[in-house]
Amino acid sequence: MIADGAGEDEEKWLAAGAAAFKQNAFYMQRAIDSNNLKDALKYSAQMLSELRTSKLSPHKYYDLYMRAFDELRKLEIFFMEETRRGCSVIELYELVQHAGNILPRLYLLCTAGSVYIKTKEAPAKEILKDLVEMCRGIQHPLRGLFLRSYLAQISRDKLPDIGSEYEGDADTVTDAVEFVLLNFTEMNKLWVRMQHQGPARDKEKREKERSELRDLVGKNLHVLSQLEGVDLDMYRDTVLPRVLEQIVNCRDEIAQYYLMDCIIQVFPDEYHLQTLDVLLGACPQLQPSVDIMTVLSRLMERLSSYAALNTEVLPYFLQVEAFSKLNNAIGKVIEAQEDMPILSAVTLYSSLLKFTLHVHPDRLDYADQVLGSCIKQLSGKGKIHDTRATKELVTLLSAPLEKYNDVVIALKLTNYPLVLDYLDSENKRVMATVIIRSIMKNKTIIATAEKVEALLELIKGLINDLDEPQGLEVDEDDFEEEQNSVARLIHMLYSDDPEEMFKIISVLKNHFLTGGPKRLKFTIPPLVVSALKLIRRLPEEGDNPFGKEASVSATKIFQFLNQIIEALPSAPSPDLAFRLYLQCAEAANKCDEEPIAYEFFTQAYILYEEEISDSKAQVTALQLIIGTLQRMHVFGVENRDTLTHKAMGYSAKLLKKPDQCRAVYTCSHLFWLEDHETIQDGERVLRCLKRALKIANSAQQMTSAARGSTGSVTLFIEILNKYLYFYEKGIPQVTVESVESMIQLIKNEESLTSDPSAESFFASTLRFMEFQKQKGGVVGDRYEQIKV
Amino acid sequence: MVLVLALGDLHVPHRAADLPPKFKSMLVPGKIQHIICTGNLCIKEIHDYLKTICPDLHIVRGEFDEDARYSETKTLTIGQFKLGLCHGHQVIPWGDLDSLAMLQRQLDVDILVTGHTHQFTAYKHEGGVVINPGSATGAYSSINQDVNPSFVLMDIDGLRVVVYVYELIDGEVKVDKIDFKKASTSTSAP
């Protein structure tokens, strides 16, 4: 309630002050219009008296101040005209000092002083000196700050800078600098004094008010930076030491933080580089409560950008040993501050690392040093609970990846994995994803087992269930996405040298098999493919001087494949394992490894019998078995017979009759391989076809019994096509008569049913036969013999 | 002029990380009217990616596909042509053109598109055309030793289809084209 009351009162006072102000301004204007200097002075003084108030907050005072500023401009123009009309400016300067109260007197003095300088009847520096000294008369912080601010504003364009019209023999930029420094120093003192004004309970309010006024003080530094005459030497020898002296001596936390930051932002980076010693030397002298971390971070950020945009200045960085100076300074600061929050320390090192990467990209040892120092800070603090600190760590770790676009370089930083260890498991996964994304985007190939090992260590968040409480379950979709990205990563782990490649896949195997069952179905298939590709790259047995004793041989890799695939069925991923076994069998086939191929088939068959029970899945599985087996040329008669017999058995046992029929006639291809005369058994081909026909018949019967309608005649047409396939190849057992009787059968069935798709199938089959007939030659003859 | 993209056997992420960048930059959304895919993507991510190139996506099931809802075969009509789509592991012997021709007769289509062998082929016979777009990522195949990434673009115009095959050989995209003309618009013989 009191606060509200104060606010209301303040509004009232401001309104009252403004009203009185306006009235006096009106009279002042009237006096100006009638060239009445005396009255102008009288009313302007009265007007300015409103600024003597202590009742307004800085924000409201500023309002009043701005009005005064505007009015004083008019007065200044009037003064200027008066001097032209013959009034002596020195007299004017005298006259204004007759004002009763000191504050209006000083405002008027500054205004007259401005005119005085413009007439150039005296050196600018003397007038400026006089003014800046006279302003000491106001020691009240708020009023003093605004008064000096007024002085700064009107003197701005009258400083004897190089190239300015006010420069002369007596007036140099040194004098300008002296003036501004003095004004700055006094303003800072006033500003700091505000901290101690008033009761302790209002401290927060005061600090807020101080914050509103800080730019008034900082403006002086801006002015200094914009003076042409303030070159590097002047900055280093005069400006910086004096400003730092004031900053250190004032012992005020708010001022120190703001002004240090101001220096960094306002003066050119080139200057900072050359005065790094001095600047950093001031840091330990500041109050312990100053957030020096942020100041240093911002300094390093500026220097990093400077280096990034101007690569030609990089040698200077080396020259001034910027890195070691910054590193040492940070070390000292952290040492001095026992309770530094983790976030600040990490932010500091993050900025230093970015600096190092931009300025010394070839010095990995520097980057490693930074990481090492960071670890020292983190150790002993236990788990990091501050999420912002964790996020900052992720930024820290991502920086080398972004800079070098090559994970392999990041792998060289020995301290990198140690820093990563400090992340919680969620962020470890985030970091792992960042690393993988970097590899995929830049198409980085990781080519040695050692590097792969190091990489897996970094992304272990995705490979393993870490020791986190079970309560934190990963979202399923996220998990899948992560694991798929790991799968893709595997294709980037590659070496041209087969031995090295084998080492790589062995490393992967070790990690994946201990990664928990949920991950296997994602990680094992790509590993299998890598291994299969490796087999293809192996030199022929004959070329290899070591033969089967070599450290990498096809046999070894097949053993490897067995080991990884057998982990899948219990994952549970039996279908996947089944398919992979068949892939390996084909690979073994190409390598002429009969026992190994047989073993893979055995494993596949076992899985078929024990794990694949869904009828649709069985159909597909059987297609894969027959399709693969059909291509095997490595098997001797006995093995082949066993496997074929089993396949036939499975076919006949499928649940649905049509599926049985199709599987059985497909088996016919197992008995006739084009390019292998030993596997051409016409008798068994025919037997398959006949058996398929029998099943088709019984299927037909069942449909008519169960549904009353006759079933589709499609199966018969399919079988006919198979008959034609083998007939064309000239298999003696598939006779013209058998073909003709099939055709007859179909024609009979067709008359009983009307199935448009079957009809068009039959029609196109007949067209095909006709076309073959037209071909002439051996084929044409055979087809010629068929009577439709 | 209707553009139909035919591709398949990508095997992402088991056998390949992604489509080759040169292919990806060619497959710009909005230029293609239909996509027919022979299967073995294998993950939903690829399905979604294909949908961004063209929303009319037809896909059949390969033996490694994650999504069990894709059908075994599909037929569709584009312009004057009837197209059939099947992954190909169901047709044994794998890659055998006579057996594939039988499937073509059964589906009663002019153009049959299948995959599985990761080997581009375009085969014309009296019943029509059998096209295999190969593997768009050049994925490992136990059937085929030397696989180059490839896909097919068909330009269907009236009774004529021009088949463009794009193959990535030694880092360069090579294009070849084959012309096919259909006899007439009649669908089945009397």
Commentary on this structure:
Chain A: InterPro entries: ARM-type_fold, Vps35, Vps35_C. Chain A: It is a peripheral membrane protein. Chain A: This is Vacuolar protein sorting-associated protein 35. Chain A: Plays a role in vesicular protein sorting. The complex is a heterodimer of chains A (788) and B (190). Chain A is mostly helical and 788 residues long. In chain A, helix 27 runs antiparallel to helix 28 and helix 35 runs antiparallel to helix 36. The longest helix of chain A has 32 residues. Chain A is elongated and about 140 Å long. The termini of chain A are far apart. Chain B is an alpha/beta fold. Helix content of chain B is 14%, strand content 35%. In chain B, the strands form two sheets. Chain B has a six-stranded mixed β-sheet with strand order 3-2-1-9-10-11, covered by helices on one side. In chain B, helix 1 links the parallel strand 1 and strand 2. Chain B is globular, with a radius of gyration of 15 Å. The two termini of chain B are 30 Å apart. Chains A and B meet through helix 25, helix 27, helix 29, helix 31 and helix 35 of A and helix 3 of B.
Shape summary of chain B: globular
Shape of chain A: elongated
The radius of gyration of chain B is 15 Å
CATH H-tier superfamily of chain B: Metallo-dependent phosphatases
Strand content of chain B: 35-45%
Major sheet details of chain A: none
Q: Main sheet of chain B, how many strands, which sense, barrel?
A: 6 strands, mixed
Q: What proportion strand of chain A?
A: under 5%
Number of strands of chain B: 11
Protein name (chain A): Vacuolar protein sorting-associated protein 35
Subcellular location (chain A): Cytoplasm; Endosome membrane; Golgi apparatus, trans-Golgi network membrane; Prevacuolar compartment membrane
Keywords (chain A): Cytoplasm, Endosome, Golgi apparatus, Membrane, Protein transport, Transport
GO cellular component, one term (chain A): endosome membrane
